[in-house]
Amino acid sequence: FGALLGESIASDDPDPVARLRSFFLHRLSLVRGRPEVLRLAFDDRLADAAGLRGAKRVRSLVAKSRAFVLQCLVEAAEQRRVRTDVPLAMLAWTVF
């Protein structure tokens, strides 16, 4: 699970919009091919299946993805490449 999610944020492209695009397309492909990944990431019963330690690890990986998306949006906003009339946190959810 961690390796699959980690591939989405592996881009070192200096362009934040290109990193977001890469992230989005990779995650889209991942979820299409392995829909269980999405269910696992957001399952409230995760601790039952993976134990508390496993659930904490999954939540950490999801948080890392969120932080990656938000950082890309912050950089893009600084470059005036994303809209400014919508809070970046809301734009992040659109991508995520």
Percentage of residues assigned to helices: over 70%
What does the oligomeric state look like here?
Answer: single chain
Question: What characteristic shape results from the CA principal axes?
Answer: elongated
Mean pLDDT: 85
Order of helices and strands: HHHHH
Which structural class do the helices and strands define? mainly alpha
How far apart are the first and last residues' alpha carbons, in Å?
17 Å
- Report the β-strand fraction as a percent range: under 5%
Given the structure, what is the number of helices?
5
Radius of gyration: 14 Å
Total strands? 0
Largest sheet: none
Residue stretches low in confidence (pLDDT < 50, at least 5 long) are: none
Give an overview of the whole structure:
This protein is mainly alpha-helical and about 100 residues long. The protein is built from 5 helices and no strands. Helix 1 (about 1-10) packs antiparallel against helix 2 (about 15-35), helix 2 packs antiparallel against helix 4 (about 45-80) and helix 4 crosses helix 5. The longest helix has about 35 residues, at about 45-80.
